[in-house]
Amino acid sequence: DSESLNNEAVLGAPGATPSNPNGPRVGQSSVLAGLSEDQLLLGRVQPFWVPDSDAPNCMICSSKFTMVKRRHHCRACGKVLCAPCCSEKHALHYLEGKEGRVCTPCRTILSRLATAETANT
Q1: DSSP H helices in 7-103
Q2: pLDDT tens track for 18-65
Q3: CB 82 within 8 A of CB 58
Q4: Which residues of 12-33 are buried (b: 16+ CB within 10 A; e: fewer)?
Q5: Are 102 and 75 in contact (CB under 8 A)?
Q6: Cα dist. 38→11, 42, 46, 54, 115 in Å?
Q7: Nearest to 59 by CA among 39, 75, 81
């Protein structure tokens, strides 16, 4: 009956998602919910840079690099990207707060991290 269903325990952690089955950490802002450990470290740790020789194309849009279309490294994730995919700037902790060139996906995550950090202070 419906009354007994309402008394059953809910399975899984509160706020659990398929990408984060344990739910958000205690005290963690919902802004950060669903981010991986690697994403939570963006901007805090210098990334491994993908060698230019391993990236004949942009790692986001797949545009082929040429003498005119140059390679750029995202300072947050280390991927090799074209200028349109890596034209954002964001302050990075490992650069002592200086702004570095970052890709659009990293900029989104770094903005979420900055929002959460501001909310916790």
Answers
A1: 37-40
A2: 555 555 554 545 777 787 888 888 899 999 999 999 999 999 999 999
A3: yes
A4: eeeeeeeebeeebeeeebebbb
A5: yes
A6: 27, 7, 12, 21, 18
A7: 81
Give CA–CA dist 74/88, Å, rounded.
Answer: 9
For residue 74, which of 85, 63, 66 has the smallest C-alpha distance?
Answer: 85
pTM of the shown model: 0.70
Helices (H) and strands (E) in the chain, counts: 3, 4
Q: Is the dihedral of CA 109, 90, 121, 93 positive or negative?
A: positive
Q: Is the dihedral of CA 29, 31, 37, 38 positive or negative?
A: negative
Spell out the alpha helix ranges (H) of the chain.
2-6, 37-40, 104-119
pLDDT tens-digit series, residues 102-119: 999 999 999 988 888 887
